[in-house]
Task: structure prediction
Amino acid sequence: DDLFVTADPEKLKGKPGVAPSCKGGAQSVAQGKGIVVVGGGAGTIHCVEELRKSGYQGSITVVSNEQAIIDRTKLSKALIADADKVAWRSKSHLTNVLGVQLQSSTVTKVDAASKSVTLENGSKIEYEKLVLATGGTPKRLPIPGSDFKNVLVLRQISDAKAINEAVGNEEGDE
Result:
């Protein structure tokens, strides 16, 4: 037996799946400590979207050292160095539809006793629940020459920019 699958091509364009919204709209999000998610990749966007799909109405703050929640696989596929082109969801969607506060910073300390995280600028964010979705870190090979400036790793948009510059493709692919 053969199986045939058909679909409307227009519905297949763009980001996979249907982006959820915040029940009652972003303006209905309760203020307060809420959930802090540290990270800026696939784990983060899936956590945020599942919280909203499940009806969570509390505040969600995402702390990432990127300017957006990015699809890191796109970095390795095309060396795209534009955060808007590799973002899972636009900043506008995160704020206005999902009711997420995006903090572009690095967490330098987690204080589980006081339920707070400290950012690189010294400010603190308190939380009810903390999700660490930081992903992995590229490992450099422990061999001579791995520290040369032309030996690069790829994890962040800044890494994609450095690789593009090294190969003479400053704009990055689309």
User: Anything to note?
Assistant: The longest helix spans residues 42-53. The helical segments are 42-53, 72-78, 83-86, 91-96, 157-166.
